[in-house]
Design a protein that fits this description.
The protein is α+β, with helices and mostly antiparallel strands and 180 residues long. It is elongated, with a radius of gyration of 24 Å. The chain has helices at residues 2-16, 93-99, 103-119, 124-129, 131-148, 166-179; strands at residues 19-22, 26-32, 35-40, 44-47, 53-59, 63-66, 70-73, 79-90, 151-163. Helix 3 packs antiparallel against helix 5 (131-148). Strand 7 (70-73) and strand 8 (79-90) form a beta hairpin. It has 6 helices and 9 strands; from the N terminus they run H-E-E-E-E-E-E-E-E-H-H-H-H-E-H. The strands form 3 sheets. Strands 6, 7, 8 and 9 form a 4-stranded antiparallel β-sheet that branches. It has a 3-stranded antiparallel β-sheet with strand order 3-2-5, with no helix packed on it. The protein has a two-stranded antiparallel ribbon with strand order 1-4.
Length: 180
């Protein structure tokens, strides 16, 4: 019974008082009229003025995102379809909110733009055998930009590594057209 009363009182206080709890695994940002006024990195209870202020929190839990596949012409003449999975942690919430408009889209464009540069000098067999080295180079290329965004790129891996059929299919289609 006492526990139920405690929960009810807690919910009432939460509904009436404008407070936000920032846990040890979170960062918080206070906005006033839509502009950042304070960054909270340590756990605490934050009071704010409703309507003119708001608090946004973000946990430091690792997140994973995958890029769309990119077709890359290799040094051996083959075309490979590549995609990567990224594991990252937001380390500075204020930078993350202010650096770019759409983080996910910008992150994907950055990585997809660097994939061809990182792999095109290799043959398909070299890429398979030197996969870790290539991914380390790709990570180094992206690390500085991610740091400016308040994000730590923890790991990067290929999640799609296949010879594409679109080029072979286009060649087959052109031969079928000649025969008719």
């Amino acid at each position: 019974m006492i526990e139920a009363i405690g929960i009810a009182v807690g919910r009432l206080i939460d509904a009436v008082l404008p407070i936000e709890t920032i846990h040890e695994y979170e960062q918080g940002v206070k906005f006033r009229f839509g502009k950042i006024v304070k960054l909270y990195k340590k756990p605490r209870i934050v009071f704010y003025w409703p309507i003119i202020e708001s608090i946004e929190t973000r946990s430091f839990v690792e997140e994973v995102a995958s890029t769309s596949s990119v077709c890359v012409d290799m040094a051996c003449g083959k075309t490979l379809r590549l995609a990567v999975a990224l594991r990252f942690t937001i380390t500075n919430l204020q930078q993350w909110y202010t650096a770019i408009q759409d983080f996910e889209e910008s992150m994907m464009e950055l990585v997809q733009g660097h994939i061809p540069d990182a792999v095109m000098d290799y043959t398909a067999d070299e890429l398979r055998s030197k996969r870790k080295q290539v991914l380390d180079e790709l990570k180094i290329e992206c690390d500085d930009v991610f740091a400016e965004w308040g994000v730590n790129l923890d790991d990067i891996r290929f999640n799609c590594f296949a010879r594409t059929r679109c080029m072979d299919h286009a060649v087959d289609m052109s031969h079928n057209g000649d025969e008719e």
